Each structure stands twice: as C-alpha cells, then as structure tokens.
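call fold(seq) -> tokens
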Amino acid sequence: MKSGKRHFYKAKARKRKSGQKRRFPKIKPGADPKVKKVFASIGVPDKTPFKPDPFQLEALSVTKHSDCLVTAPTGAGKTWIAQQAIDRIHKNGGKSWYASPLKALSNTKFGEFSEIFGEKNVGILTGDRKENPNAPIIVGTTEILRNQLYDAMHQGITLPADFVVLDEAHFLGDEDRGVVWEEIIIYLPPRIPLLLLSATIGNAGLIAEWMSAIRSKECMVVIEKKRPVPLYPLFFHPSGKLHFLLTQGDSQKSRLHKKVADYLNTHRPLLLSPPYQLPPFGEIMRVLNKFHLLPAIFFLKSRADCDHALDLCKDNPVYDQNRKFLRRKQIQELMAQDPHMAKHRQLWHLEHLAVGAHHSGQLPSWKLILETLMTQGLLDAVFATSTVAAGVNFPARTIAFLNSDRFNGREFLPLNPTEFHQMTGRAGRRGMDHIGFAVIIPGKYMDVRLTAKLMTSPPTDVVSQIKINFSMALNLLLSHTPEQIEDLLRKSFATYVIAKTAKKVEGGSSKKAHKQLWLNFLKHLDFLKETGYADKNGSLTDDGIWASQLRIDRPLLIAEGLRLRLFPKSDPALLSALIASFVSERETDDSLGKLFKPKTLLNHFILLKKGLEPFIKHMADRNFEVRPLFFHPVSAIYAWATGQPWEKVLAIAEMEEGDLAMLVLRTADNLRHLRTLKQVFPEVASTAATSIDLMMRYPVTIE
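ret:
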C-alpha cells in the first residue's frame, strides 16, 4: 500500500475511534468589507498608446554598447526590449539569435517575430523544426545555440551572429539544464553582444560581475521590481469568505491578517474537504465569479489532480450564453484543424464548463487549444501543474494555490521565492486588468505561513549548475587541448563564486577554485582514453570525432552500439525502437507480460543489452551513472513506427498522451544525431532519416 493511502486509512480509523467529525461547511460567497473596496478597482484598463517603461528604455540603450542582464517580474515587458534591439541590428544588416528554454515558447516567438519582421527574415531551429535556417533572425532552443557554438569552435570560425538574446536566463540555476546557459555564456565570442532576460533573481549583480570578468566587456544590470499589474494576496476561508492574506499597511509586510492567523490557530479549523481529497472547485469558482475574480489558474500538485478537478466543477454555472457560443465556435474551428482532439475525454468540460487541465501528460496540441481559449478570454479556469508558470504566455486575473510545495521530478520540495513569483506573475493581465489576485486555499498541502513569507521574500540567488558530461567532454576536445579546456573551466560561474569567496577569507587562495570541475573532466578524459575515443595525449581518435556529434543524453552508449554494429542498418522501425531505450527516463515494469513483443524486436533488444553489458559494467566500475535499458519504451515506439494506431500505442505504452508524445519526440531527436553520421555509418544514417519520417506524424505533430 502506498504511504499516502496508508496515512489516509489511519486517519479515518482514528476519526472513527474518537467519534469526532471534521466540519465541512456550506460555502457561501462573502468578502471582508476592506477586500470589497479593492474589488471595486477590478476592470479593464482603457486602451492607450503603448509607452515603454523607463527600465525598457534603459536596457535598450545599454544593449548598444555592452552586455545587459534584465531582471523583471513576469509580464513586465522584457520581450519588447529584445524586439527593439533585434530590429536595430536587422536594419543595420546584422544577424540575431533569440534562444529560449522551451520548444513551445520558441514556436510562439517565431510566430510573433514573423509578423513583426516578415516571414522571409525569421527562421526557427528547435530540433523538431528547421525552417529558414539562414534567415537574419533565428529563434531556437538554447541547446541548438550551444551546439552551433560547438560547431563554430571545431571549424575555427565565429558564430554567424551579431546579437544574442538568452530568454528565461534564470534557467542558469536549473539543476538539469542550467549547464547549457553557462556554456553559451562561456563560449560566445565577446564581440557578440549578449542580452539576458530573466525573472527576478537575487544575485543579478554577481552574475554580471562574472560575465564582465570572462567576456572582457562590461555587463550592465537593469532591474525592475514593480509589477505591471498590482497583486493582492487573498485567503479563501472554508466558509467561502475572502480575507486579505496579509495585514495591510503594516511595516512587517509578511505579517498574517488577524482573521487568517485566528483560523490557523484554531484547534480544529474548518476544512474545505477531507484530507487527501480535492475541494469542491465548482463552489470555489462560484465565489470567485461572484466577485469577478475569474478567469483563474489553479495550481495543483499532480496531473491526476488536474484531471480530477474538472469533474468537481460541475457546479460551476455558465451564465454568459454569448460567451459559451463563442467558445463552442472557436473549439469547432480548432477541432477542424486537429480531429484527434475532437475525441478528447475532457472536451465536454472545456465546452460546457469552461474549464480545462493543462499539464505535461497532455498532447502539445491540447495545451495549445487551452492556451488559445484562455488568451481569448473564453475559459473560466485552468487546472495546471507548476510547469505552466515557466515561459508560457498564459495569463489570468487570479492565481489560486492549493499547495506550497512543488515536485521537481524526484521529490516534493517547498516553493522558493523565484518559483512562487514566477507563478504569481500570471495573475493580472497587462492591458486587460487593473489588478490581479493570488488566492491561498487552505488544505493538507498548504503551508499558509510559508506562502505569506514568500509573498514578500526577495528573489532567490542563482547557483551554478555546471557539470561535466561525456557530450561536453567530447565536444570540447574536438577543438581544444586539455590545457585549453582547463582554462575554459576556470571561466565557470561556480569557479568565479568560489574564487571571490576565497579572496574574502584571510589566507584563502583562488588558484584552485576550478579543481573539482577539472578533476571531473580528467575522470571523463581517462575513460575516453581507456575506451579508444581519445588517445594518450588527450586528442580525439577518429571514433571520438564522430561520437562528438551525438549531442544527446547517452552519447557513449549509442556510440559503442554503433562501433559493435548492434543497430540495424536497414530497418527504420527497429532502429527507432532500439534508440528509444536510451532516451526513456521513466522507471518501468519490464515483466514483458502483456507487452507488444514481436520476436524480431525482442531478439534485437536482447542482443543490444548483451552487447553493451561489458561497456556498461566498465562505466559503473569507474563510478559513472548508468541507467538500465528498458524494453517497455522499445515496445511502444516499435508499435508507433510500424504504423499502429495512436490509441493502440497508448495502450501498449501505458503512458499518458503527453508522455508518449515526449518519448516519440526525444527518440526522433536522438535519431537526428545518428543522421549526421552519414560519412562514417552511411546505412545507419540513411535508415535514421527514414525512421524520423515514421515517427513524426499526427498526432505527435500538428498537421
């Protein structure tokens, strides 16, 4: 029995034993009189000509002569700065690169920039899409930009760009992907001006100091702390009454409002629902609607909660029949473009209740439908995991929190100030709202005191996440000697911070601040030497040179599979399936009981695993992380690549649609790297190209 259920049944047993019952009141809309005065300010601002804010003009001026780091709240208008700077470069005949962390965000910016600068002047590079790659303005993902820098260093040329924008630059501190941002800053030639756009971060000055030191040119910081739309934090009492969360006008800005403190100090406070159960969202929305606080985004703990929440909205009446008509008409138009979505299990909720679930388990096309309807003001609420807060233009009048922690892929951790402000940044739509609201809803997973503190906490510092991996080691060795690589590692943000700290300590030395990174690189280099990808002098062998083109999660394992001829040369579906075993990060049950397992597929997978066993053992013996190869994703991708219907593949995969789509997309991305090896493995490269065509079809891609 899972621990959550175990605690649930123990709680029920204790309740029965004590004979005590928790109270779940009837929700009746209400608001504190002072709160009602604030509600009087709700409305849509008058249309006025756009006038840039002082921080936007300051940043634009800075980009003319130096690097610039802009840190400002979500929705403050950072993209305008990039647009104007790119326009200046373009008019002078220069080229610009706009890099973002998400393919979806890159697609959005590509559309926006195409309208502004003209389709012929804008290209996109995301792995999935490669359009107009020689255009003067390129939009793409940070990984693609980093890979282009690798290629430029190898070829001894400079990146063909005169200006680079790194959007969502606080991703520098992302545990999994921050290394890419740091590499770009280190490798980018100083002649190319760099504009970093970020949510509010605590140590922007330190980051700018580091950039100035390693790029030999000044990096200026432009900070905007004011939200474009004022935010009012509210507390949703289980009775349905709305209170201010914090004491208004108090010098201690995070001090709880007396009514909220009284509620928290009650021995057995009223609850909206039993522990481990979701609250009655339809009734909650009825309260928010009463005071014109919709549309709202509800942030929930899990994808399952987001889906289940829709059924709890059946009490949400749809009053505006004209709006319902417009929503139905827009949905019909969207469904005509994407017929698979017409069978979506949540379509009824979308059309009749004006609510939807937005999370990574949904297909990208479904999420795009929700974003379109929400942007047009045709939805009342979206139930989302915290992923919607990162980089998607998805604003609402109100943000509602039911939990004060966040799942990071491994465990639930309390929200930090940057994460919290990223989420509250969606509250209040610039040009559509005078004010926005963050509503705190009490429950099992809500630490009200923590959220009160987060409301006024300074932004979190960004910490370097640079780490050595085999793809980085191979690509640096492609164009640098080990000694030159040591110099590059001295330029890391981590090294700069350690050195700066050491100088402040009496007797401290900064000379070996990069030691840990360097030793880790040497560990990778030694393994490359042992396995024949590098020679005794640290130069790449022929095998190391072509392996460097595999800029993927597990380059050496796939490279070894190629060296041992373990991949099929002429069966694209089989090649797709085997490559899927290297990209899936999902722990799975490999009992092979009900799986789709053609004999040919199973035999090739077994041969692949056995063939790689010695190499995998060698990696483990040298203390490198090695994840097992599972058959489950192999089975699912083989079914998809052999033309099985999407619904059947879903049944085989036992995944949500979004997870399966991501597996397909990541497998296709790995195959693209195999496709580049046509000079060394021409047959496999040709088969990989055919494999990609088999994989990239509807509904993974939008027709």
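The two ends are 44 Å apart (CA to CA).
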